[in-house]
Amino acid sequence: MKQPLQRLSLALLFTQCLALHIPSTLPLQHNNACPRKVIGSGVKLRILPTGDSITVGWLSDDHNGYREKLRQNLANNNNNYENVVFAGTERYGNMEDAYHAAWSGKTIQFINDHVDAALEQRPNLILLHAGTNDMNINLGVSVEGRDPSAAAERLGNLIDKMVQKCPDAVILVAVIINTCRADQSPQ
Fold it and tell me: Is residue 173 in a domain?
């Protein structure tokens, strides 16, 4: 298992807002990260978009959210759609390859509890955006509570699982997107 320090350094990438709530007794470091294998010529970029409604594409016009535009941009870089594929067990959107591991209205813990089958597909790039619902004022959504430190710990556990099950994957953790709701923004 990764040291809590490594987990936390990755978890901090997920939000700048929560950084003030992280206990100061946890020093940050990332010097123990193992080098990843280079993706060679002809190897498909297997992307696993993971997270909540933003990743699902909820309320986007085409129901693809950022995933279709990302695929187009990556494919245009090497002029080949066939080298960019999405992994996951869920489908939403009108793109041909609409796979992901994301669930609208769900928390980090829910994602952690349901992502295993998607990780078994061995993506080589994992995009993670989670935590927005953990800060929701509706405790029916933020079922683990609205504690930023606890959310960072849950995110660290999710990242640990991803690293353990997909050791050669690059994991990019997004900053939580700001809410439009004034009653949620302090979190």
Answer: yes
- Residue 50's φ and ψ, nearest 5 degrees, are -130, 135
48-62, 74-88, 100-114, 132-146, range with the lowest pLDDT = 74-88
CB atoms within 10 A of CB 146: 17
Q: Is residue 12 included in any domain, yes or no? A: yes
Confidence of residue 8 (pLDDT cuts 50, 70, 90): very low
Q: Two tokens at 86?
A: 């999405």
For residue 71, being part of any structural domain is answered with no
* 19 pLDDT tier (thresholds 50, 70, 90): very low
Number of domains in the chain: 1
CA distance readout (Å), 58 to 15, 38, 103:
21, 33, 10
Token code pair at residue 142: 């933020």
pTM summary value: 0.76
Q: Is 123 helix (H, G, I), strand (E, B) or coil?
A: coil
Query: What's the mean pLDDT when you consider all of the chain?
Result: 79
Separation CA 129–CA 176 (nearest Å): 7
Instruction: Specify if 19 maps to a domain.
Output: yes
